[in-house]
Design goal:
Elements (H helix, E strand, L loop, with lengths): L2 E6 L4 H12 L3 E7 L8 H5 L8 E2 L2 H4 L6 E4 L3 H13 L3 E4 L6 H14 L2 E4 L5 H16 L2 E8 L9 H11 L22 E3 L2 E7 L6 E8 L2 E8 L6 H12 L5 E4 L8
Parallel strand pairs: 1-2, 1-4, 2-3, 4-5, 5-6, 6-12, 7-9
Antiparallel strand pairs: 7-10, 8-9, 10-11
Helix pairs in contact: 1-8, 4-5, 6-7
Bound molecules: NADP nicotinamide-adenine-dinucleotide phosphate (NAP).
The site of NADP nicotinamide-adenine-dinucleotide phosphate (NAP) has 27 residues, from helix 1 and helix 4.
């Protein structure tokens, strides 16, 4: 029996690549897509793919009538939480690819997921190279107490910091907080110049034309430093394989789990 999937944002930049990935996977079935602009159309017409006859709905309520096993949220930060809560109340497991949800949002989502005994797998970045960078950073943080995170993106990216930066800060907080030799309250000058203190890491976001998506985490020690850098290309392909892993694994979970590595073997 194939897994039935509803993909919110299946016509977007990241979502359309995932739509194709699901369409090509023999064990998965894309039963509904959500997009406000293309509601009423068939996905294959929009993406120009023959045989992709998934209907497009304008709202979560309508899309859930297809009774999906897994709901994938891939739209925008403003809409994501209410979509996820509606999907859980509709009885589906949920994969969240949308960035910009806060720890408080995830706490609320976790309570809702526990209540209905469904899993939510939230992954700030599905790319395997990012998952590995996170793992390497966690190891580095065990040995090096000072680090800062810088995320770079094009000027139109609406959320800051990126989901990848937020997720990395959150994961490093499980190791320890980064050490600040001059505490923020004792520094001279505007505090914003030191970035935001998030989950015990200093996080800086650069938003400029000319950048795609990349992230540095810099670990500093006396007379030496380690820079872990991740760079994405311009297509959404790197995110597809990881999202398919998340879709296949989420049905075995209850409550919120963050990061793809939570369902991978290392
Ligand atoms: N986790 C990862 O690995 C990863 C990778 C790439 C991107 N992302 C994140 O994924 C999200 C989407 O990125 P993107 O670049 O694909 O955006 P995008 O190209 O703007 O696509 C957004 C999609 O969501 C739909 N949408 C937007 N608002 C909606 C709403 N209120 N209700 C229903 N549908 C809505 C859009 O269709 P309509 O406008 O027609 O409604 C469109 O299909 C962002 O948060 C981005 O940061 C995560």
């Amino acid at each position: 029996m194939s897994v039935k999937i509803c993909l919110a944002g299946g016509t977007g930049w990241a979502g359309s690549a995932l739509s194709c990935g699901i369409f090509e996977a023999p064990d998965l079935q894309l039963t509904a897509v959500i997009s406000r602009k293309h509601a009423g159309q068939v996905l294959g017409e929009v993406l120009d793919i023959k045989g992709l006859d998934t209907p497009i709905f304008g709202s979560v309520g309508e899309a859930l009538s297809s009774k999906p096993d897994v709901f994938v949220e891939y739209t925008q930060p403003d809409a994501a939480k209410s979509h996820v809560l509606s999907a859980l109340n509709g009885g589906t497991h949920v994969v969240v690819g949308t960035s910009g949800l806060s720890d408080n949002d995830y706490q609320e989502i976790d309570e809702a997921a526990q209540k209905v005994q469904r899993g939510v797998l939230a992954v700030g970045n599905f790319a395997l190279t990012v998952v590995l960078m996170q793992k390497f950073a966690e190891i580095a943080a065990r040995y090096i107490p000072h680090w800062e995170i810088i995320d770079y993106a094009h000027s139109a990216k609406i959320d800051a910091p990126s989901g990848t930066a937020l997720e990395l800060a959150n994961r490093l907080s499980a190791v320890r907080e980064s050490q600040l030799d001059v505490p923020l309250e004792k520094m001279h000058g505007p505090r914003e110049s030191r970035g935001a203190r998030l989950d015990g890491s200093q996080v800086h976001s650069v938003r400029l034309p000319g950048y795609a998506i990349s992230l540095d985490v810099i670990f500093g020690m006396h007379e030496q430093k380690l820079v872990l850098r991740h760079e994405s290309g311009s297509s959404a392909e790197p995110y597809v394989d990881g999202a398919l892993i998340a879709i296949r694994k989420v049905r075995g979970l209850v409550g919120v789990h963050r990061g793809l590595d939570s369902v991978m073997d290392f």
